[in-house]
Amino acid sequence: MAKMNLILPAMGEGVIEATINKWLVAEGAVLKEDQPLVEIATDKVDTEIPSPAAGKLVSILAPEGSVAKVGDTIAVIEISDSRQAGEEEKIEKEVARIRETIEETKKEEKEVQDISVTLKSRTPSGKFISPLVKSIVARENISYAELDSLTGTGMDGRITKDDILKLIEKKKKDQGSADSLKKQKAVEAVKKPDVATTGDEIVEMDRVRKLIAENMVLSKKVSAHVTSFIDADVTKLVNWRNSVKDKFLATEGQKLTLTPLFINATAKALYDFPMLNISVDGTKIIKKKNINIGMATALPDGNLIVPVIKNADEKSLTGIARSVNDLAERARSGKLKPDEITGGTFTVTNFGSYNNLSGTPIINQPQVAILGTGAVRKVPAVIETPDGDVIAIRQVMILSLSYDHRVIDGALAGKFLNRLKKILENYSPEEL
Q1: Where in the chain is the domain with CATH 4.10.320.10?
Q2: Which CATH code is given to the segment(s) 224-425?
């Protein structure tokens, strides 16, 4: 019998480590190929790693609660000799892929060596700080001098979340009695609700909600948020969708909601206005080659996740509908892959799904803009005709665009919204 190492695979851009949440099988268990082995958690998503081959789980090298780096061996599997050659080839390909990912990450880091210190992407000495670490640093008021004193335990000396948490714990222990007393008095000054007497319930945020909260606060700190609004008469679009949705389901096997139409139109507008399809790195603007649109999706537990439709501008309406339905379904069932929630260049969120007229969405970092679509509603509207103005009942919605005013001015945002409005109002199946 031959043995093969189970390595922690690459799980999307910027992900270099993961926490071992739970082993789904015990040592000595007989395994089937593709059988779920272990649950892991990253800063971006929770997922499962399947068994790469049939065999037996000989040993677990990464216990529950531990942090493993991409490329680490987390378990050893015993397989039959007949499968050895094929499995070794698979392993070699996976290791090569991981190495390529690591090299790309190193290249990206080298390209941003001169990143602006004011945006806290690196310390003055050049140590890289991830978005998650940045949020903790900002919250705990940790200085750059303290960060530079740390020896990072992550890949290539990166400062990890665990490094920061250990620093925070050390700072607490080093505080003098006077500081501790002052802090205690400050805490006592804040009246906490008494559940027993008031009937209030205190619920601890789950891990995903904590990450969402940190990312939202970070986005507000990083980007200069401005939101612009525009009305769009989508009567033609809604009428066409209503007339073909049953046939579309029968011929394509896909439900045709308004969301694919909105995403398709947004991709067309982004193609015309590429400066909204960018990211910011210090004082550098990165113009994205691909148009990858994320769609904010509500989960059954009340949290949000943003799966990404890659190369949305190159897909047909049928292709986008298929991607929207598939990603939404697997998001709600917790079956998304890590690379399906990374790489987004622009985000669309649908306030209208809950009959809300509009909203002011928060930018999904490191993007620079996010589109909010409001509820489509029937309203009386003035229509210009050759014979004069008339009042008619029209299907109207509000589009809201939140954008980073550091790199997008009101004029550019307004032109983008007007272009999107024109695409939606003059809808024809041939154009989308």
Answers
A1: 114-173
A2: 3.30.559.10
Rounded to 10 deg, the angle between the 235-252 and 258-272 helix axes is 110
Domain with CATH 2.40.50.100 in the chain: 2-110
148 vs 359, which has greater pLDDT? Answer: 359
**Per annotation, catalytic residue among 114, 148, 200, 409:** 409
Question: Quick check: 22 pLDDT over 60?
Answer: yes
Q: How far apart are CA 264 and CA 372, in angstroms?
A: 14
Q: How many CB atoms lie within 10 A of CB 14?
A: 16
Catalytic residue among 46, 225, 231, 405: 405
Is 272 tagged catalytic? no
Q: Distance between CA 361 and CA 372 in Å, rounded?
A: 6
Rounded Cα–Cα distance for residues 39 and 68 (Å): 12
Classify domain 2-110 by CATH architecture. Beta Barrel (2.40)
Q: How much of the chain exceeds pLDDT 70, in percent? A: 80
Other CB atoms within a 10 A radius of the CB of residue 176 amount to: 8
Which residue would you say has higher pLDDT here, 206 or 344?
A: 344
409 classed as catalytic: yes
pTM value is 0.62
Average pLDDT over residues 27-36: 89
Highest mean pLDDT out of 90-94, 166-170, 209-213, 256-260: 256-260
Instruction: Encode burial over 278-294: b for 16+ CB neighbours within 10 A, e otherwise.
Output: bbbbeeeeeebeebbbb
CATH superfamily of 114-173: E3-binding domain (4.10.320.10)
